[in-house]
Design goal:
- The chain folds into 2 domains: 63-296, Aspartate Aminotransferase, domain 2 (3-Layer(aba) Sandwich); 301-407, Alpha-Beta Complex (Aspartate Aminotransferase, domain 1).
- The protein is built from 15 helices and 16 strands.
- The protein has helices spanning 3-17, 63-76, 84-87, 91-104, 115-129, 143-151, 164-173, 197-207, 229-232, 261-270, 272-275, 282-295, 298-320, 340-354, 383-399; strands spanning 26-28, 35-39, 45-50, 108-112, 134-138, 155-159, 180-185, 187-188, 193-194, 209-214, 241-245, 255-259, 333-336, 356-357, 360-361, 372-375.
- The strands form 4 sheets. A 7-stranded mixed sheet has the order 4-12-11-10-7-5-6, sandwiched between helices. Strands 1-2-3-14 form a 4-stranded mixed sheet.
- Helix 4 (91-104) runs parallel beside helix 12 (282-295) and helix 13 (298-320) packs parallel to helix 15.
- It catalyses: succinyl-CoA + glycine + H(+) = 5-aminolevulinate + CO2 + CoA.
- Its cofactor is pyridoxal 5'-phosphate.
- Homodimer.
Length: 409
């Protein structure tokens, strides 16, 4: 086999479909976010405004977070030295897991190197704990959940996105004595829509199923202490297992699950993705714990309120210009484009001509024909930056002769 030719063919296919992904060289500078420095291919530099980051609240540069990380770094050094089983755990890991358990009102939490690994490792391990388990998965669950469920050596059922009636049909068709788990999300980040948490919990009660809720795009962002949509809606006690990230609203790095002490102990003891992975550096754990603790306070609520306000303002202004925004009431602002080449071209022009950085969202992240630009306002953006973004979008929509409509895409 000509391996080099095979690689050329695979990469050429992405170029032909208009969905080849290009890294943009940007440098975040402490205290300046959401502004950053873009290094062009020719080596020249200019200041840009980041509109597609998942550091939703700007916590990645908050002084409290940085101070905690500096303190831990000076005290312990750079790395953790290995897995939790071999190199031992630290006070920083224990404090972080205590903050997470408290955040979700659970007995325990377990930290992984990412939320992707947390989903994959946990979901793929459950068959070892519950022989005969059937997993019911929302059709639009994140790739990490899909991967974990694929590797799960047991029965799998896919229910139509947010379709509680279809989920009921699937549950009712299976053996009533079989163990069951429903895996879904609180916010589906590409469309920005919410999962029907209460209705799914009702079905879980009726069919004696466990609930597994991915709150990756909601932790820190919703609820009086940032516990997510389940906390906001008073439903956290009805969720058996939470998955979340430390790398989005909390502004640091890592992922976790939160559940009963027995469940966490079992996953800790059986999941290869935890057992054989080097643990988070202590400084990262310290920064994440500090961020979670701060976002539980009144200051955290002020940041959440301001972020939600800016998201509403941006949606209102784009809708007023006839932009096909996808508005489901969350903090995410997707603008439908519908073609990968057009989506990439708009992204390139926003960056080169207006200093606005937003990456195109193409297949396989979203289905073909639903390509979009996905904006994430933060409380550290300014009203002037929102105005500049709106004017740039208006100019490009006219320049490219794109359709305008008051309808939601």
């Amino acid at each position: 086999m000509d391996y080099s030719a095979a690689l050329d063919q695979a990469i050429d296919k992405l170029h032909e479909e208009g969905r080849y992904r290009t890294f943009i060289d940007i440098e975040r500078r402490n205290g300046a976010f959401p502004r950053a420095i873009w290094t062009r291919p020719d080596g020249s530099q200019s200041e840009i405004t980041v509109w597609c980051g998942n550091d939703y609240l700007g916590m990645g540069q908050h002084p409290v977070v940085l101070s905690a990380m500096h303190e831990a770094l000076d005290a312990t050094g750079a790395g953790s030295g290995g897995t939790r089983n071999i190199s031992g755990t630290t006070v920083y890991h224990k404090k972080l897991e205590a903050e997470l358990a408290d955040l979700h009102g659970k007995e325990a939490a377990l930290v992984f190197s990412s939320a992707y690994i947390a989903n994959d490792a946990t979901l793929s391990t459950l068959r070892k704990l519950f022989p005969g388990l059937i997993i019911y998965s929302d059709a639009l669950n994140h790739a990490s959940m899909i991967e974990g469920i694929k590797r799960f050596d047991g029965a799998k059922r896919i229910f139509r996105h947010n379709d509680v009636a279809h989920l009921r049909e699937l549950l009712a068709a299976d053996d009533p004595d079989a163990p069951k788990l429903i895996a879904f999300e609180s916010i589906y980040s590409m469309d920005g829509d919410f999962g029907p948490i209460e209705a799914i919990c009702d079905l879980a009660d009726e069919f004696n199923a466990l609930t597994y809720l991915d709150e990756v795009h909601a932790v820190g962002m919703y609820g009086p202490r940032g516990g997510g949509v389940a906390e906001r809606d008073g439903l956290a006690h009805r969720i058996d297992m939470f998955n979340g990230t430390l790398g989005k609203a909390f502004g640091v790095f890592g992922g976790y699950i939160a559940a009963s002490a027995k469940m966490v102990d079992a996953i800790r003891s059986y999941a290869p993705g935890f057992i054989f992975t080097t643990s988070l550096p202590p400084a990262v754990a310290a920064g994440a714990a500090a961020s979670i603790a701060l976002l539980k306070t009144a200051e955290g609520q002020e940041l959440r309120d301001k972020q939600q306000l800016y998201a509403r303002i941006l949606k209102m202004r784009l809708r007023g210009l006839g932009m096909p925004i996808m508005d489901h009431g969350s903090h995410i602002v997707p603008v439908h484009v519908g073609h990968p080449v057009h989506c990439k071209a708009l992204s390139d022009m926003l960056l080169a001509d207006f200093g606005i950085y937003v990456q195109p969202i193409n297949f396989p992240t979203v289905p073909r024909g639903t390509e979009r630009l996905r904006f994430t306002p933060s409380p550290v953006h300014t009203t002037g930056e929102i105005d500049a973004l709106v004017r740039a979008m208006d100019a490009l929509w006219s320049q490219c002769k794109l359709n305008r409509s008051s309808n939601v895409a």
